[in-house]
Amino acid sequence: MSDFTPTADDLKTARAWPFEEAKALVKRLARLEKGKPSDRPIRFETGYGPSGLPHIGTFGEVARTTMVRRAFEALTGRPTELICVSDDMDGLRKVPDNIPNKEMLEPHLQKPLTAVPDPFGTHESFAAHNNARLKVFLDQFGFDYDFLSATDAYKSGQYDGALLRMLEVYADVMNIILPTIGEDRRQTYSPILPVSPTTGRVLYVPMLEIDAKAGTVVFEDENGEKVKTSVTGGAVKLQWKADWAGRWFALGVDYEMAGEDLTESIKLSSKILRAMGGEPPAGFNYQLFLDEKGQKISKSKGNGISIDEWLRYASPDSLSLYMFQSPRKAKKLYFDIIPKTADEYWSFVARYHQQVAEGNAKKALDNPVWHLHGGSVPSAQPPVTFSLLLNLVNASGTSQADVLRGFVRKYRPDASDAEMQALEPMLGFAVHYYEDFLKDKKSYRAADAREQKALIHLRDALLALGEDAEEGDYQTAVFDAGKAQDYENIREWFTGLYETVFGQSEGPRMGAFIKVYGAEGMVKLIDEALAR
RNA sequence: GGGCCCAUAGCUCAGCUGGUAGAGCAACUGACUUUUAAUCAGUAGGUCACAGGUUCGAAUCCUGUUGGGCUCACCA
Which residues contact A197 (CB under 8 A, 6 or more apart)? Predict the structure, then answer.
């Protein structure tokens, strides 16, 4: 690690967007605290609908929020925390398509997800199952966060204050929300959704009476009976935008970002929060992802890239880099950018260490990798780029990590153990990429008469040389084989060799390749080519 | 139609408290000539979407236009 400690001045002038966000947050706090800062942790939040599986947007949101968090910490030195809230008290609206035992969920429609049994049979509820999956997902990337179940928050009384406050300003809240919804819905709308004491379902019914002092509401239950209930302790939950405002109020959220599709919701929730006497968190709306053709990526269309696909070909760090870049711009997310982003990541790492060594703090703070790693940038870099590795894997036509590793040793004999270690994950990515995209593009042709002779010549030479010859000897053998057939331009022979043996018109430097791949292995490849 | 966001080299982006356009990759040329890749050296490539305005000076600020994305019933 070549970390450095930026000066206050460096930090103040840092312009990378996480710093801009951090500064906006500082302003918010200054306004709020009026010169007497508390020592409470500054709270960052991300929220999830628990019915959906974690996806690339989930990663992006947590990664980006974490970048702002780290920038804020560096800027202010204040303690922070990130709360990931799962909205698991929401009613089950419909049975998802992508689960087993669908029929067992039917009777539980409209119940809070924490009250719906787990169709996978592994957890105590459907919500618990999805929450566990979310946590595994986040942990896989090493995110630092505190998980909060909305159901727990309601039931434990953590939201009670917000609920009671909501009753006090009920009329204002209604006035804010009603103009934004349809005529029909207005008649029955309520920001407060009671849970039916008889059926356990989340009810979308109007409040017949409200007693802010007592903290109670009256509504009509599904059986037609009027029920009076306290709003505390999980007897009711808040609906969507009110829920967001209530959560901000109850948790004292200081920072939250959201996709731009939620811009309007944020505005409305902010109004509600202000009506309650709260101050909306800082944050911004990041843009959605597009596919190669500029179409919006949606799970139903199946276009674009999933997070699993990205991680099959490149590291989580490279994905973080992608998330760092231009968050306000709708970005195209498709396969071609993966190798590029992977290489860019390492070149930023290299540049970062150079910037630190030169004492150029401004540049270092602008460098994406500072933000990806919160200032602790790994020092060991792989000795080759991903695109070189792809060339190698493609040229050699091998998906054996051993052979690739050998190649890299040849090319970069002075690579340290740490560098070779950093190469390891990259080898797997390259092999995947080769197998999925490059392998099928190979097309072998049969050798013509002259090429056959030359190949046989080379084959015999290799057998004679055996496994222990020098790289140069192998290289010479290849040339001799070509010269013996009187190729006027030796390049022709190489092209023929590549096309018949490797199935492409370009290939690896032969001497090095044979040394690493083994003379015997090469003989085998030649035999295969001769048999075509 | 209203609101919000975006528009810089082929690609991905940087440049934003206004001061003669940058990087990486791709492309091209050359060197090594025992090919290719790599490496090294170099070249080319942009009226900063368009049009106005403010200014001594605008990619940068303002207005408008065009193009793209999101959003404006319900659900989250």
Answer: A221, A227, A229
Find and give the residue nearest to B13, measured CA to C1'.
A325
Residue that is written with structure tokens 């843009």 in the block:
A287
As a whole number of angstroms, the distance between CA A12 and CA A48 comes to: 33
Give me the percent of chain A exceeding a pLDDT of 90. 42
Residue A326 CA and nucleotide B53 C1' are separated, in Å, by 29
CATH of domain A442-530: 1.10.10.350
Q: How many angstroms separate the first and last alpha carbons of chain A?
A: 53
Q: Which CATH number fits domain A8-174+239-286: 3.40.1190.20, 3.40.50.620, 3.40.50.20, 3.40.50.720?
A: 3.40.50.620
Q: Is the ipTM value over 0.85, yes or no?
A: yes
CB A371 within 8 A of CB A71: yes
Instruction: Point out the nucleotide closest to A475 (alpha carbon to C1′).
Output: B34
pTM of the model: 0.89
pLDDT in the model for residue A413: 72
